[in-house]
Amino acid sequence: MPQDTQLIFADRVGHFYGSRFGFPLMAGRLLGYLLVCDSPQQSIDQLSAALRASRSAITDAVTLLASLRMVQRVRRAGERADLVSLTPVSQQLQRFFDSTVHEEQAVLYRMGLPLVADSRPARRVPLQEAIVLAEFLAERLPMIMAEWGGQRDELYAGTNHAAPNDERSDTRPG
């Protein structure tokens, strides 16, 4: 059974993700708990017991977080239940810091410029700002992710564990 301090932490993470990103409370609580629980892989039943929540609430949270690639479900050969674990943080970051998303946004937003070309400046500025921000992020995110890769490598160099396998090389500037 989890320690009360683990549950308090899970609740705080749940409230943070709920208020900042609109996550259901249980999804945030699940993330928080997986960050600090003793076993990095847990079954739905274990998570349900630990978080004092229904199996359906846990399953819904796992489904949401798996769709966002924040957790992963695996089933070992011969086992009947999936095990849930965190996706390595670096893989989570790839989804949120993918520069191609911002490149696509800039192209999409530019398609709207002709629609406001004859409008007053106050009407055009929000779209122009969105374009400039998208282009800025598309340019800078590969550099930020490369810098993060170096810091991450340093973090794991000081441990007895290898960095989880990820696709960081796709995000490094060429």
Strands ordered across the widest β-sheet = 1-3-2
Total helices: the number is 7
Could you tell me the strand content as a percent range?
A: 5-15%
- Overall pLDDT level: 87
DSSP strand tally? 3
**In sequence order, what are the helices and strands, one letter per element?**
HHEHHEEHHH
Major sheet characteristics: 3 strands, antiparallel
Overall, the morphology is elongated
Helix content: 55-70%
Distance linking N and C termini: 48 Å
SS-based structural class? mainly alpha
What's the alpha carbon Rg, rounded to whole Å?
20 Å
Low-confidence spans: 167-174
Structural notes for this entry:
The chain has about 170 residues and is mainly alpha-helical. Helices cover about 65% and strands about 5% of the residues. It contains 7 helices and 3 strands. It has helices spanning about 5-20, 25-35, 45-50, 55-65, 90-95, 100-115, 120-155, and strands spanning about 40-45, 70-75, 85. It has a 3-stranded antiparallel sheet. The longest helix is centred in the last third of the chain and has 37 residues, at about 120-155. The chain is elongated and about 65 Å long. About 15% of the residues are buried.
